[in-house]
């Protein structure tokens, strides 16, 4: 993915304060999310959050042994949004509801094959947002 990421100082501060053991994986996720055209990074729900026209991804950092990337269609439910299709699913991914995918990472660094699938998933997800 080619873009110049614009990291949020607010997210930088949050991550520095948390000092998460999987910081390397968090950094990879940030880089991949920010490489998507038009993505804005901020803090929402006390977590790193990513948006285009609406929120679509949030990093959950509650557990020291895992980082969760939650892909969604925004803060409010959108029952009329077409169902998002992602295939193949990245390692550690589980559907947590309609148009809500949770990818759980438990190691750093992210293996190259997993990173490639994650990139495909992110591109497919944002292509289906309306």
From TrEMBL:
SUPFAM superfamilies: YdhG-like. This is YdhG-like domain-containing protein. The lineage of its organism: Bacteria, Bacillati, Actinomycetota, Actinomycetes, Micrococcales.
């Amino acid at each position: 993915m080619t873009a110049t990421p614009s990291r949020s100082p607010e997210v930088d501060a949050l991550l520095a304060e948390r000092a998460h053991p999987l910081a390397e994986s968090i950094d990879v996720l940030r880089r991949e999310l920010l490489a998507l055209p038009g993505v804005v990074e901020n803090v929402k729900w006390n977590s790193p959050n990513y948006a285009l026209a609406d929120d679509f991804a949030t990093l959950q950092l509650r557990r020291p042994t895992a980082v969760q990337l939650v892909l969604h269609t925004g803060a409010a439910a959108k029952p009329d949004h077409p169902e998002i299709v992602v295939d193949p699913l990245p390692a550690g991914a589980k559907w947590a509801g309609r148009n809500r995918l949770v990818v759980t990472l438990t190691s750093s660094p992210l293996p190259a094959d997993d990173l490639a699938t994650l990139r495909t998933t992110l591109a497919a997800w944002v292509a289906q947002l309306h």
